[in-house]
Amino acid sequence: MKYPETLNNLIDCFKHLPGIGEKTAERLALSLLDADDSMINLFSTSLANVKQKVKRCSKCHSYSEKELCEICENEDRNKNIICVVETPKDVVSLEKIGSYKGLYHVLDGLISPMTGKNPEDLNINSLLDRVKKENIKEIIFVLTPNIEGETTSLYITKKINNDNIIISKIAHGVPLGANMDYVDSLTLEMALENRTRISNS
Amino acid sequence: MKYPETLNNLIDCFKHLPGIGEKTAERLALSLLDADDSMINLFSTSLANVKQKVKRCSKCHSYSEKELCEICENEDRNKNIICVVETPKDVVSLEKIGSYKGLYHVLDGLISPMTGKNPEDLNINSLLDRVKKENIKEIIFVLTPNIEGETTSLYITKKINNDNIIISKIAHGVPLGANMDYVDSLTLEMALENRTRISNS
Hints:
The structure is a homodimer.
Chain A: H1 5-15, H2 22-32, H3 37-53, E1 55-56, E2 63-64, H4 70-73, E3 81-85, H5 88-97, E4 103-106, H6 124-133, E5 138-142, H7 147-160, E6 166-169, H8 185-193
Parallel strand pairs in A: 3-4, 3-5, 5-6
Antiparallel strand pairs in A: 1-2
């Protein structure tokens, strides 16, 4: 490679990002030579600070720049419901819908003995603690619909072992707008099983 | 969006890069939270310095951190040949082959009256200057094979107007390994016209 050193370093850094190959890294780095100075400044300072500044909320383990995240601190949220998710990214996906007004709890993965992820590697104990200490009435699991997801929700349900708490998981079925030709048979079977009644007025 | 501010800024910066959409920007920014500190440091300093440090070579207009680029400074290069290219990226593509040992000249675009690019907007005068002052014996055009590329090479050839200098352009034809079904008819016509003789020993 015959690019000057700084440019070469920049290309190398881009190449370390997931899904970015050599050609794309080159294109991205070169595009920055024509970028605004203000954008470059913001980019480089955000980059330098992101690991120090962005921590996890001490309560729900979601991303936060303070001890508690905005959602945990917000007095308007329903403090009786916890939505259990896999990653902090899932919190943002759910917040984008805007209709859920409860709290969250980020597990940071799923139970998966195959890959060596045991219950103690996840934020399960802190969830059980919250269920005991806070006034939780409902728990909703929003986890990947596979064996690991099912195992994790069953394990936590057993551990909570409290009939006064409503525990549910999101519906699995045919996604809206999907072409029926491409829906796999397992999803279709589940969609049939969980059919909902159309009321006849 | 409910990400902390620093993370949000980082996502926004990634979104400004060419070909990076919202989902990819999110994925790239989040991946940096798990990256090495040394990589983050290198990334942010390269980013901060790239516009100040990476300049153009005063002779060939290729990228360089010094007044003259490595190629122009290299005493081992053949100083009698200039390869005329469109962008500094093309210099790197040609250097990767490793077989060309001459000099370069970056035009920074092609003549294109449609988009308002006139000869005086390109590095053509500095090329004509080099041809007059340096001992140039050969010029090779490596430009995009379209109307703009042809116009640019013809315009420069006319301007040089010196029968002692060999002026050529790269061969256009069927790329190696190409499936003949997908070669367009214009390329095929040109490949036929520029056929090369297989010697019968």
